[in-house]
Amino acid sequence: MNRSENKPVIYLDHAATSWPKPREVLDAMQRSMLEEAANPGRGSHRMAMNAGRVLMRTRTELGRLFGIANPSDIAYMSNTTAALNQAIKGFLKPGDHAIATMIEHNSVRRPLEYMRREHGVRVDYVPVDESGGIDLDELAGLCRPDTRLIVCNHSSNLLGSILPLADIAEIARGCGAKLLVDAAQSAGVLELDVGKLGIDLLAFPGHKGLLGPQGTGGLYISPDIDLVPLIHGGTGSQSEEADQPSVRPDRYEAGTPNTVGIAGLGAGVRHVLREGASAIGSREWQLTQKIMERLSAIDGLRILGPGLGQPRTGIVSFTLAAAEPSEIAFRLDRDYGIAVRAGFHCTPLAHRAADTTAKGALRCSVGHDTTETEAESLITAVREIARFASR
Ligand SMILES: Cc1ncc(COP(=O)(O)O)c(C=O)c1O
Predict the structure, then answer these.
(1) Is 16 a pocket residue for ligand 1 (Cβ < 6 Å)?
(2) Fewer C-beta within 10 Å: the chain N or C terminus?
(3) Is 157 in the pocket of ligand 1 (CB under 6 A)?
(4) Measured between alpha carbons, how far is 77 from 198 in angstroms, rounded to an integer?
(5) CA of 243 to the centre of ligand 1 (A)
(6) Do residues 362 and 371 make contact, with C-beta atoms less than 8 angstroms apart?
(7) Relative to the CA of 15, which ligand 1 atom is closest?
(8) How many CB atoms lie within 10 A of CB 180?
(9) Which of 157, 180, 341 to mutate to test the pocket of ligand 1 (most atoms within 8 A of CB)?
């Protein structure tokens, strides 16, 4: 048991999925399941109407969080991966050119590589330096007349680095391309206003910083973009038509949605709106600084990503000369009840940038409710493991 918080573990794997969720998320899901989880948009009875209202309310709150004027421009997806696939495969056409960065998650890289292999899309990747930064001139230099899409994450899931979205958006606009942002690590912890930043497509998870359950997420689609839907089927609207409706969000939401999950996501988003994404993010930043400062004093330990004092999200990844990441993760779990993630984090190109392709790295990621005491327990545990390993 976590000695201080009465949780079964010290959970430092928030970059994968946040846990525990705020109490109100559980309550909203239970209420939804007990009282209103009929099929929204498919019937005119009271329960179906109430389920529809849950979907609309959460959509409106997501719109408030991301500065989206029309909530119908947000389509629910089952996770960030589904949203990125819909955006990439629904937007690019044979012969198009796309640019991504070398720190993209496989959820960006694999759909892009699929489009290259199967649909003749051309793709370039802009290099990334050791701390996760890109050279904006180098990015601009890759733009060509046929460049239609620039894709990048807001924050790297290995390095915690943050990309300058407003500058990237300006480059995209300058070459007539659209900007797709993977907000898997930033939604709920960094300011994210699609209008102010100039984002055309935003893929986000519900189950990480927005504190909703797994199986939730979404895609913002700017009103001037018409994506080819990846899923065709029933929407409860224009049922007599053989074609997928053009009306949003139905166009991208065929099939029964995850009403109970979206009820929970709504409660998570309200929690974030109440606390403020930047307030949550800056508290997480303070914790990462403490962890970095103390871990970097350990012999043979190398912290990846931006240096102390630099902007980053709640991720601290490191390597230790005396022990492999998987061994440290195993010992943290077995001997200290600390949950972290070792390996390649679905982002092999970022490991190339960090020079950790041989054995990967160990990633600790803090979340909205991580305490100083929990950070302290991690530091003590890593110090003990390092001392034991170097004997
Ligand atoms: C940067 C990044 N992109 C995409 C994903 C995929 O997210 P999901 O698990 O919601 O599909 C992750 C997951 O960790 C991520 O960190």
Answers:
(1) yes
(2) C
(3) yes
(4) 22
(5) 31
(6) no
(7) 14
(8) 28
(9) 157
Three-state secondary-structure class, residue 334: helix
Asked if 271 contacts 65 with a C-beta cutoff of 8 angstroms, the reply is no
- pLDDT digits 0-9 by tens, 197-240: 999 999 999 999 999 999 999 999 999 999 999 999 988 888 88
Asked whether 81 lines ligand 1 (CB < 6 A), one says yes
Domains of the chain with bracketed CATH:
10-21+277-389 (3.90.1150.10), 23-275 (3.40.640.10)
Ligand 1 atom nearest to CA at 156: 1
Amino acid at residue number 263: A
Do the beta carbons of residue 360 and residue 345 sit within 8 Å? Answer: yes
Coil, helix or strand for 10?
strand
Please tell me the number of Cα atoms within 13 Å of 40 on its side-chain side: 21
Mean pLDDT of the chain: 95
Least confident of 47-51, 167-171, 277-281: 47-51
The residues, any chain, with a CB within 8 Å of residue 53's CB and separated by 6 or more, are: none
Nearest residue to 68 (alpha-carbon basis) of 197, 165, 238: 197
| pLDDT of amino acid 314 | 98
Query: Cα 147 from chain centroid?
Result: 25
